[in-house]
Task: structure prediction
Amino acid sequence: MKDSMKHDLAAGTLDIPARFEVARAQFEAVVSKANTRIPIHNRGKEVTVRLKKQVMVSPEFLALWDKINGRAAYRVAIDEDALKARCIAEIAKMGRMSKAQITTRTARMNVGQSGVTHTEMGLSTTAVKEETHRLPDFLRAVDNECFLSQRTVADILFDSGRIQDFLINPQKFTELFIETVKSVHNHMEIDGIRYIRLDGEEYYLQEIFDSEELVAYLDKNAIPVEHSVYDHVIYDSNTVELPFAQALDADDDVRMFFKIPSKFKIETPIGTYNPDWAVYMDRDGMEKLYFVIETKGTTSLDGLRGVEKSKFRCGKRHFDALGSGVEFPDRPAKDWREFKRTI
Result:
C-alpha cells in the first residue's frame, strides 16, 4: 500500500484501472481500511497552510488563472468497423485457455492454547470435463458489459477463431474477452477524443481554492514558498515535486506558480484528471509564458502507466482546446531547470 493512495482517496483522485471501475467502491473501502497505524508527526515541524488572499487579486495570479480556468466538454467518435477489427486482432492474440480445474487441498488442523493453525498436507487438481460445462449466455454477458450488439460480439468471436477456447473454459474466456474489448474501446476513445471549449463556463475561484486552513509538516509534505497563492506548497513526492517546487520559487523568471488543487478536475472517458502545476513566466519583460505541467519520475510518455498516459493525453487536448495561450507540454517534466532549457 503506497502512502499516496490514501492521499489520492481523500482528494478524490484515486486511479483505478478502467476494467475495475465497476468495483471502485470495494477498492476504496480496502484502501481506506489499510495501513491503519497511528501517524506520528513532529509537532515542531507542524505548519498551517494558508491561502494568501491578497495574492488572489494580484495581476500575476489573475493572468495565470484566466489562462487555465475555462471548461471544456469532450466528444468521442469511434468507427464501429475499426473497433470490431481491432477487437478481432486482440482476441486472436490472447493466450490459449487451459481447462477449468477443481483444486482440492487437504490440511491437518492444530488446535492449541494460542489458537488454531493448520499444516497443508496435499494438493490435487482435477480437470472439469467439457461435457459437464453449463455454458454461460456469452452474447448477453458481453453485451451487458461492453454495450456492443450481439451480432457484433458473435462476429468478433467467430472471426477471431477462438470459439474452441470458449468451449474449453467458458467463464475464464468470457472474462478475458470482456476485458480485452473494454481495453480496445478505451484506447480508441482516447485516440478519437476531441475537446470543445464551453463558452461562458469556467472553474470558479471559490470552488477550487479552499480558504480552509490545512495542516502539514515541514519534514514530510510541505515547503514554504513566496511566489504562490498559498504560503506553503503541499507536495506528494520528495524526489520530484519537492525539488520542482523549490526550483520554481527560486527562479527569478517565475512570477507566479501553484500546485493545482485537487478540486480542479478535467473529465475524461476513464475518470477525472487533475494536473499538477500552473506556472506563469515573464522573460525580461519581453515574453509572457503560461504552462500547465505534469511532473513524474520520467520525461517519457512511454514511462507512464496506461491510465496515466491516457489521462495525460486528454489533459493535453483539453488545454489545447481552450485556445487561451496556456501550453501543456507533450510530455511530463521531472526537473524544472531541465524543462526550462527545452522551452
